[in-house]
Description:
By secondary structure, this protein is α/β, with parallel strands linked by helices. It folds into 3 domains: 1-40; 41-54 and 75-278, Rossmann fold (3-Layer(aba) Sandwich), CATH 3.40.50; 284-459, 2-Layer Sandwich (Ribosomal Protein S5, domain 2). The protein is built from 12 helices and 21 strands. The strands form 4 sheets. It has a 9-stranded mixed beta sheet with strand order 6-5-7-8-4-9-10-11-12, with helices on both faces. Helix 4 links the parallel strand 5 and strand 6. The structure holds thymidine-5'-diphosphate (TYD) and magnesium ion (MG). Thymidine-5'-diphosphate binds at residues 101, 103-109, 138, 141-142, 271, 273-275.
Amino acid sequence: MAKEKSIYVCAQCGNDSPKWVGRCPVCGAWNSYAEQVVRKETVGQAHRVRVAAGLGEGQSRPQTFSEIETGSEVRIDLHDQELNRVLGGGLVPGSLVLLGGEPGIGKSTLVLQTVLGMTDRRILYVSGEESPRQLKLRSERIEHTPSEQCLILCETSLEQIYTHVKNVRPELLIIDSIQTISTEVADSSPGSITQVRECAASILKFAKESNTPVILIGHINKEGMIAGPKVLEHIVDTVLQFEGDQQYMYRILRSIKNRFGSTAELGIYEMRQNGLRQVSNPSELLLSSEHEGMSGVAVACTIEGVRPFLIETQALVSTAVYGTPQRSSTGFDTRRMNMLLAVLEKRVGFKLAQKDVFLNIAGGLRVKDPAIDLAVITAILSSNMDAPVECGLCMAGEVGLSGEIRPVNRIEQRIAEAEKLGFSTIIVPKHNLQGVDTSKWNIRIEPVRKVEEAFRLIFG
Ligand code: TYD
Ligand code: MG
């Protein structure tokens, strides 16, 4: 409940007092006190809001932008190019970063490997999940000479962690993971929403007040809904997500939210026996993949949620054995596929009355983004003609009923992603390029207006 209360504030110097005074005890001005009504909110709520806004405990007052001092912005170099870039040029002092990902994806490995490489700063690595012995074994596995500046603490009580932080005065604090830490303030069990939120709010306050950057590690499950990262996203400054397939060895680091940089950046790593290796040229991974020279495969540049993805679309077209041809798709709406097949028949003259068509989106993904349409029909046509699509080519575009390629949203992000992943050409809807400066990318951009145009471009 919010309570209303009056205070008196000096118009000259901003000093306040609970009672009206004739002469300001601070600046000596006469009759300068005016009444102000303030709302006193419940402590927890108000505190969280203030802290989340980075205001700390001190008094705040309205001010103009010119009054606010920023100083020159310094960034802490993490000695990891991918990580630095995803953070927007390094770690900002006093920022709170959340690194989320599914269990076993390599979050602890990434952070441990980074801190061991930062020999120039005092770091406290708090682990609530592993014993010092396990951490030592891991550090030996990733073959880093142990840095004397990095201290390990295995502890789960937040109050105890603060005691050690006071003694060590680290320049960077790591908490692995937020779900294992608990505070005495809340009595629910570690990992519950209340505990996670209270701990994170308290750590945020610590980060802002001491100007120490903190990296929190948090687990998320497939739905991303478990207590943890989702409830924290609005509290922290930056949310990084580490993702990848357990089957494949590469991992992608994305920024989902960043108060200090762009969220379009991504970093790529490869999980090796001896830790994570930065992949600065991702095409080495993509172009070596097995679909080279195979027909029926096209790469689409889609966006799911806020993140761009390059997805392989596979199609198989064969002569129907039975009277009624089969149409089946996995990961894509079958009715939409039928509509696209009708467009193909009408516009490209693709005779499908006697053909079975199977469609599959690789990786078990379900795609709703209409920008995948162009890749779907390219894959179908490629399989039908048994003509492979050139490697290094990807596309984005919605297909309309009259065979026109309709514009898609966030084209710049898609182009940047395709470029980053090492593609050499991207086919995009012509309408999308109006007012877009294409010279900033190093990827060939081919605008198309109609499906026929796209096919002439792809298959010659
Ligand atoms: P880990 O960092 O423990 O994951 P998280 O903290 O996200 O739960 O990574 C665990 C996986 O990484 C495990 O399956 C083994 C693998 N791994 C390697 O392949 N090479 C290595 O050098 C290390 C340290 C781990
Ligand atoms: Mg871990």
